[in-house]
Amino acid sequence: MQPTEKIGKGVYTGMPADDHHQHQGEAEASHGQLDQRITRGFIIAIGLTAVTLVAELIGGFWTNSLALLSDAAHVFMDLFALALSLAAIRLARFPASDTRTYGWHRAEIFASLINGSTLLLIACGILWEAWGRMLHPEAVKSKEMFIIAVIGLVMNLIAASRLHAHSHDDLNVRSAFLHVIGDAIASVGVIIGGAIMYYTGWYVLDALVSMAIVVIIGFGALRILREASHILLEGVPRHVDINLLVEKMRAVEGVNDIHHLHVWSICSHITALSAHIDVEADYRLRQGEVVGALELLLAHDFHITHTTLQGECSSCMTGPVIQQLQHRARSSSGGHDHDSGHHHH
Known about the structure:
Layout: H1 17-63, H2 66-91, H3 107-135, H4 142-164, H5 171-200, H6 204-232, H7 242-250, E1 255-267, E2 270-279, H8 287-302, E3 306-313
Helix pairs in contact: 1-2, 1-4, 2-3, 2-5, 2-6, 3-6, 4-5, 5-6
């Protein structure tokens, strides 16, 4: 049997080992070049977004426009998201160690928690100021506000163009791309508000536009906090349908059943899986091929590239698909308890 494409029971039949290693080497070289191109795109986008942030902060105080300052807060959220995405690529290059076997990937999640919490505080501050301006409108230099918002929009569109090429292939890039597009939409709202105020002098609109942007910031911050918390709690990644995953794994030739399955995220773009594989008796001597077939399936269909698959024969005591973890006391000798809750005969 050659390791896996779906045939008969639903297997991946694949390539010989030598071809697989050569293909893996070529894939790693190609991945390195892709990382370099994506990194250049992020650096340019970060530079443009930083210029936009500074321009809108200075412009917001100069023109007395709360809408511009609100958009600056939204730009800050985008800038942080871009920097976080670039940091994720950089952190992936840091080697794991004997004290951090996953490397530094989780630093991205802690940064997300800090970012989300900060943004909620900023949103509350802007909302309070906007309510005050609703009650007591203040004059705004609407023409200057309009010009600065147009500059911000142009910067956002250029930044988006640098990320668009890779946004369909990489979830990390797609997330950053959508952040920038969201800010471009917010800039359009500020531009429209500036134009209306220039011709009508209806300055209450400045507070209304800022409130609308606060809603966008608030939802974005809550989404960041929810996703970061989900990862820290080792939740199943949202792009993984656990029932479909088990069904496809069971369909691989040589697999009798799956149990003790765990799927979690190390960070926003690295998904890990561990499972016990009940191997059919006829495939016991070719267990490595069955595991290889499963790895190809998981990488291709679910983008799960970090796997730990333990093969077992059908005489092993099976457990539930989802294993309930339990606290256990350490052995009195001070050694580690290696009992995993199942026995081999």
